[in-house]
């Protein structure tokens, strides 16, 4: 047996906080070393924080990262474990997204990322240069390029995040060159369903390349990106470790590297491919690490938890519904909490609580973060923190119902948020009178204007509150309404952080149904009793003014996600929703395409949004569409 102990660490970093980030990394490394780790894997861009974006164009920012890497090496010089962590490194006119290997107080080598994503939320090729096969150079006197590392326990390769997502990434040639253990340092943002995809992909890479793969992911949120942390260790296709997500710390597992060597010898296909590679291989520099690593005498063979090599493990204790809801709720709550804390500008969190679904969910998410953040203090202290941080404001007009007032008040009470009622009718009428003075003969205040004025009065009050209470004003519109412009510029589109702007209305309803089942909160029950309504006019109901939300969300998924033409969307809807009159369905499809196209100018003005899906409405990071366009092609 050739036993080693691999630790994968999740660290919550802040972009630009190079000293604080390294302080956290040193703590994580020390804790893992105390647990007997031979190897510690830390996240991508740990020193810079991810994503640094154009900050890497500041030379001082890049230089500071190298100094902090040296400090990390010095601060861990007494540890015997080998460590990999991420930073930006300058080389000539270029900067690279790199993995650094550190051991015994020395920086042993720097390996640049090769696969630079420029899709969805990623723009790495805008600022970073790519590593290439066979690159051999030095930076600051340290080997730089296509490297593998020979330790006393075996041969190690390192790579950065996206490198593992391509089957033709650097793992292949480095495993053929002798690497038995591949350390992947990642900053992989949360997306719905991503954990299953990661697990399958990592196991597949470990099997294809007949290696042991250790994967560590960043945890925390920066701007609109939410990182769920966690990590994996997979040996030649077998998953050995899945680390907890949404929390800092590390998880570790013992691995027998002789098993990887044995499986290589048995796999004739891998051996033949390796021989072909060796005959015409690019130069991969081997870095010898003469210093001894942590003693491994006390390590024991990794026995399966159920003490059987043939029987399956324990079945999952959760349902797919629970996994879906808890995962999404945790991601959104983390996004709210880290934005609140890391920005450094806020002391309170405010929600214009309408008695409706969207604002209730946003307030719940803020409260959920408080529970995660301060729950260890005990129930009473946690409640006190909620009362100190949260604020809920109900601003009724003549169109607000008694039911929504009751629902809002009860929800605020359930979530320990101080509740204030501030009627807006006087301000509403006053604003209408002033606007009438702006109109020319023949012009009148429209029905839509009368509705939007109410939303804008509320938003103006919320902004004034933020200035006075250092408040984080949460914007509460959902993705479905945002997609078709069922929002008000200067009104419900206002806020400092758009919490559920990338959550469809059907998902909002699904989450609240789940929360009602699991928490039995009376405020949620009262909110769900009434049909969704903006309550800006008499007898208003959202689905009657738009279309049923399942239909609307299907339109959005097909048009914006699958990139179907409006005519194709119509065909699919007719199959999906046979309970509706075909003419009505056809009208809904045509209406969606028109409203979506005409509303792009609106949703490009929304605040910073949390990204939680593979399909987001965010022109800066996700769905980049021209504001001025027509759909004559559809």
Automatic annotation (TrEMBL):
Q: Does the keyword Membrane apply?
A: no
Listed binding positions for deamido-NAD(+) are: 452, 481, 602
Q: Please give the catalytic activity noted in the UniProt record.
A: deamido-NAD(+) + L-glutamine + ATP + H2O = L-glutamate + AMP + diphosphate + NAD(+) + H(+)
Please give one Pfam family short name: CN_hydrolase
**UniProt entry keywords in alphabetical sequence:** ATP-binding, Ligase, NAD, Nucleotide-binding
Identify the domain of life: Bacteria
What is the active site of this protein?
44, 113, 161
Annotated positions binding ATP: 352-359, 476
Indicate the segments forming the CN hydrolase domain, all copies.
4-257
Function, please? Catalyzes the ATP-dependent amidation of deamido-NAD to form NAD. Uses L-glutamine as a nitrogen source.
Q: What is this protein called?
A: Glutamine-dependent NAD(+) synthetase
Q: Which source organism?
A: Labilithrix luteola
* Gene name per UniProt: nadE
């Amino acid at each position: 047996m050739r036993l080693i102990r691999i630790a994968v660490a999740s660290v919550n970093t802040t972009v630009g906080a190079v000293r604080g980030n390294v302080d956290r990394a040193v703590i994580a490394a020390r804790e893992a070393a105390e647990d007997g780790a031979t190897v510690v894997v830390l996240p991508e861009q740990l020193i810079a924080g991810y994503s640094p974006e154009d900050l890497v164009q500041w030379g001082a920012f890049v230089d500071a990262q190298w100094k902090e890497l040296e400090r990390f090496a010095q601060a861990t010089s007494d540890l015997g474990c080998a460590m990999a962590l991420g930073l930006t490194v300058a080389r000539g006119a270029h900067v690279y997204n790199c993995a650094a290997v550190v051991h015994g107080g020395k920086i042993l080598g720097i390996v640049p990322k090769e696969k630079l994503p420029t899709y969805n939320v990623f723009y790495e090729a805008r600022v970073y240069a790519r590593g290439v096969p066979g690159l051999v150079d030095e930076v600051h006197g340290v080997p730089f390029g296509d490297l593998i590392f020979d330790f006393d326990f075996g041969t190690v390769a390192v790579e950065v995040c996206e490198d593992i997502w391509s089957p033709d990434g650097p793992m292949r040639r480095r495993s053929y060159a002798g690497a038995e253990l591949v350390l992947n340092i990642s900053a992989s943002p949360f997306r719905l369903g991503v954990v299953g995809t990661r697990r399958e992909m990592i196991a597949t890479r470990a099997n294809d390349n007949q290696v042991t793969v250790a994967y560590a992911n960043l945890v925390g949120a920066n701007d609109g990106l939410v990182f769920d942390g966690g990590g994996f260790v997979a040996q030649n296709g077998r998953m050995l470790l899945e680390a907890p997500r949404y929390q800092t710390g590390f998880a570790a597992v013992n691995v027998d590297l002789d098993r990887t060597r044995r499986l290589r010898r048995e796999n004739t296909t891998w051996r033949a491919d390796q021989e072909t590679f060796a005959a015409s291989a690019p130069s991969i520099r081997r870095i010898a690490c003469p210093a001894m690593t942590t003693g491994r005498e006390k390590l024991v063979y990794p026995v399966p938890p159920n003490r059987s090599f043939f029987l399956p493990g324990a079945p999952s204790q959760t349902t797919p519904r629970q996994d879906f809801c808890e995962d999404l709720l945790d991601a959104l709550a983390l996004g709210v909490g880290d934005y609140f804390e890391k920005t450094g500008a806020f002391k309170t969190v405010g929600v214009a609580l309408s008695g409706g679904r969207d604002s209730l969910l946003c307030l719940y998410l803020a409260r959920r973060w408080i529970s995660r953040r301060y729950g260890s203090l005990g129930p009473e202290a946690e409640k006190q923190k909620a009362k100190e941080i949260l604020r809920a404001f109900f601003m009724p007009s003549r169109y607000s119902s008694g039911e929504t007032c009751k629902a809002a008040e009860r929800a605020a009470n359930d979530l320990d948020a101080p509740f204030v009622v501030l009627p807006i009718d006087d301000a509403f009428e006053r604003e209408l009178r002033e606007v009438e003075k702006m109109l020319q003969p023949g012009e009148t205040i429209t029905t839509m204007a009368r509705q939007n004025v109410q939303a804008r009065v509320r938003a103006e009050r919320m902004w004034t509150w933020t200035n006075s209470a250092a408040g984080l004003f949460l914007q509460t519109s959902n993705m479905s309404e945002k997609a078709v412009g069922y929002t008000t510029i200067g009104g419900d589109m206002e806020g400092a952080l758009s919490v559920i702007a990338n959550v469809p209305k059907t998902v909002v309803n699904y989450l609240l149904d789940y929360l009602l089942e699991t928490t039995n909160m009376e405020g949620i029950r009262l909110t769900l009793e009434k049909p969704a309504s903006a309550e800006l006019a008499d007898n208003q109901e959202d689905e009657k003014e738009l279309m049923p939300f399942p239909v609307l969300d299907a339109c959005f998924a097909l048009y914006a996600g699958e990139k179907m033409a409006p005519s194709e969307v119509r065909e699919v809807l007719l199959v999906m929703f046979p309970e509706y009159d075909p003419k009505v369905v056809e009208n809904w499809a045509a209406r969606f395409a028109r409203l979506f196209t005409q509303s792009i100018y609106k949703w490009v003005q929304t605040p910073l949004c949390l990204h939680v899906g593979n399909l987001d409405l965010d022109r800066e990071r996700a769905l980049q569409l021209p504001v001025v366009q027509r759909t004559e092609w559809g």
